[in-house]
Each structure stands twice: as C-alpha cells, then as structure tokens.
Amino acid sequence: MALFFLSYDLRNKRDYQSLYKVLENFQAIRVLESCWCFRCEGTTSKMLRDYFKQFVDGDDCLIVIQCNEINNTPQWAGLNLLGNPNQL
To answer: Do 34 and 7 meet the contact criterion of CB atoms below 8 Å apart?
Structure first.
C-alpha cells in the first residue's frame, strides 16, 4: 500500500469535523497540525484530492502527496512530529 500525506489550509469557515471524520475512516494519523498521513492502495494523489475536496470549502487549500519507497523504505523525514508514519 502506498503512503500518502494530506495537508490543508482551511480559510474562512474552518469546519474541520467533516474532514477529520473521513481521515479517521482512512485510519490516518496526524503528523503536523494540518498534515495527516495514511496508507491506501489502488488510487492516486489526484483521485484522493478529488475525493477529499468534497470535505473542504471552495476557498480552502488541499494537497495530497504520495511518498515513494526505495528499497522498502518510505522517503520522508520529519522532526518533532505528532505521529509517526512508520507506524501505519
């Protein structure tokens, strides 16, 4: 399964609950205040972006990034994270 990072900036309305609920369904973990990580198969960053955009407002920002692996090692690094993506 591929490792994905999702980050967002919610602007005016800042209704996080619907987004949090769907991230919970993906068993995502929060790694930074507005950045989550999860594993998913059979999809792309674009497909996930299109799916998640229904849970944010039109003026909000959203990015989904797939993290590649080299020799079975995810290519990410962090410091003082809230959660560890390697635990997924």
So the answer is: yes
Spatial separation of the C-alpha atoms in residues 68 and 84, rounded to whole Å? 16
Q: Which residues contact 28 (CB under 8 A, 6 or more apart)?
A: 6, 36, 37, 38
pLDDT of residue 83: 95
* Confidence (pLDDT) at 14: 76
Q: From 3.90.1150.10, 1.10.10.10, 3.30.56.10, 3.30.70.240, which CATH number describes the 2-72 domain? A: 3.30.70.240
Provide φ and ψ at 19, rounded to 5°.
-70, -45
Which parts of the chain sit beneath pLDDT 70?
A: none
Q: pTM for the full model?
A: 0.90
Residues in CB range of 75: below 8 A, 6 or more apart? 67, 68, 69
Domain coordinates of the chain in residue numbers? 2-72
